[in-house]
Automatic annotation (TrEMBL):
Keyword Metal-binding tagged: no
Protein name: TMEM248/TMEM219 domain-containing protein
A Pfam family this chain is assigned to: TMEM219
Subcellular localization: Membrane
Length: 288
């Protein structure tokens, strides 16, 4: 009597089906792992955003302004003229190393004049020694300082002697259109000057662009970022970002669950058993 075979396709074996799917569909498994990793990443970012303060990438702050200034090399001009890039704008008044220069025209209302005490140190490129009692003045473009637009910005840096406050800080005087300056979180105001020094007219260039000539005296700046000057996201903005990240992660986890459920329903092959139920065989596709 020929033993009869019976098909058991009706029984659901999720673990066996998942194991077969993993071994026979590597691209699908790779896609699942990518989606799962992305979901866990968004979930971690959402939790981190909910419990930590983060800087606002859409708001310019004074840390960005001063870091851009420190990336420039200031070189003194022998003839005492202003910078090569732009001419001095018609500002109403200009503070040069403790001396206020008045122009014949009044200051436009859109121009802001600031004197700020910032953590900037100056280094001489020739001997790399810190300097004090030095005053540098020049006119820069807003784009050179990490600001929007190409307006001219008058910048004066006065490095005090160690008796005043050490050479790790400098008095930065800025005259620029109000709309291009960082809006809030100003550094402290400069302390009272004990004296004035002769201004050194300087022009700026990128540190990596070219080397100064031997006849030029160039100075590089070192800036220590101040965390109190960083524009941070508000609690409302952090909550909104955290909620969106968690919502996206939940959706991706739902996709992972659907992928697992679909794989558990997939039969990799038809299994047939002999009538005795002890020996598992696969039905050959081609009769020998």
């Amino acid at each position: 009597m020929i033993p009869q075979a019976r098909c058991v396709m009706g029984s659901w074996q999720p673990v066996a089906n998942l194991r077969d799917y993993v071994s026979q569909h590597p691209p699908g498994v790779t896609f699942f792992l990518c989606v799962l990793s992305l979901a866990l990443t968004f979930l971690s970012l959402g939790s981190y955003t909910h419990t930590h303060r983060l800087p606002n990438p859409d708001t310019q702050d004074w840390n960005h302004f001063l870091s851009s200034l420190a990336n420039l090399q200031l070189c003194a001009r022998a003839n005492g003229t202003a910078m090569e890039t732009v001419s001095s704008p018609p500002f109403g008044k200009e503070e040069v190393c403790g001396t206020v220069l008045l122009n014949s025209t009044q200051s436009p209302p859109s121009i802001t004049h600031l004197s700020l005490w910032v953590p900037l140190a100056v280094m001489d490129s020739s001997d790399s020694q810190s300097l004090s009692d030095l005053c540098l003045h020049g006119t820069l473009l807003a784009s050179q300082l990490g600001l929007t637009g190409n307006e001219a910005v008058n910048v004066t840096l006065m490095f005090s002697s160690p008796s005043v406050g050490g050479n790790s800080h400098a008095c930065l005087s800025v005259s620029a259109p109000t709309h291009i300056l960082p809006p809030a979180l100003l550094p402290p105001v400069c302390p009272a000057n004990e004296g004035t020094s002769s201004p050194v007219r300087a022009f700026a260039m990128e540190i990596s662009s070219q080397k100064p000539s031997a006849s030029q005296s160039c100075y590089s700046l070192q800036y220590t970022p101040d965390p109190t000057l960083t524009a941070m996201l508000t609690q409302k903005e952090l909550g909104l970002a955290s909620r969106h990240l968690i919502q996206v992660s939940v959706c991706l986890l739902g996709v992972c669950v659907l992928l697992c459920f679909s794989a558990s329903l997939t039969h990799s092959h038809v299994r047939r058993y002999h009538s005795n139920g002890l020996e598992l065989q696969r039905e050959p596709l081609i009769d020998s």
